[in-house]
Amino acid sequence: MKLKTIIGTALLASACTLPAYAQVGEQRHNFAVGINGGINLNSVSFSPSVKQKNLMGINGGVTARYISEKYFSMICGAQIEVNFSQHGWDEYYQDYPTISYTRTMNYIDIPFLAHLAFGKDRGLQFFIHAGPQIGFLLSDSEKIDGNWEEVIANGANIVTEQHGKPIDNKFDYGITGGAGIELRTKAGNFLVEGRYYYALSDFYNSTKKDYFSRSAHGIITAKITYLFDLKK
Length: 232
Fold this sequence. Notes:
Layout: H1 2-16, E1 26-47, E2 52-53, E3 55-71, E4 74-91, E5 100-119, E6 123-145, H2 148-153, E7 171-185, E8 188-199, E9 214-231
Antiparallel strand pairs: 1-3, 1-9, 2-4, 3-4, 4-5, 5-6, 6-7, 7-8, 8-9
């Protein structure tokens, strides 16, 4: 756990210091704020493994972005978001279609992103986002259907340790990144983006005495963002 904490802290520090390095190239002071919304396709990396399919959830919140400079053809800046985001997993057993289990976990996620873009000041741009992300668990719920006891009694090799198990660690951290396109107009800036989040933390305890040695989120996100400039 110490190594994961060090990595997470280093990534967070690097994102927070991005503006300090924006001293080369054509200086800009463009500050924009807005809203974002989209969907998550969630899964969890378990060890021992748990069979599952993607669980769909919502993702949305507020965005703030600062563009500090244009270095040759690359536009450089930093972006922060505060989002309500649904994580979790949906267990799926092809040989046992009568049973199902879903755990939905509601988080406040805060990604700290480097923003690198290429394109025109007015018109279409291509951008890349990357940086650390932290999250705070608000609540979770589970839904279980079918006669699991009967299926297991008949010899099914299924992991059920996670069923009904409380979440041990409510603080989540990891790295996220993605790419998209932005249309910059007089009416505002419209962004369409795909992003992936890889958790470095486990939400269940993972010491030698615990059942799971790994329980971490993996999330594919598709979102739309609208930003309007406060300062150009």
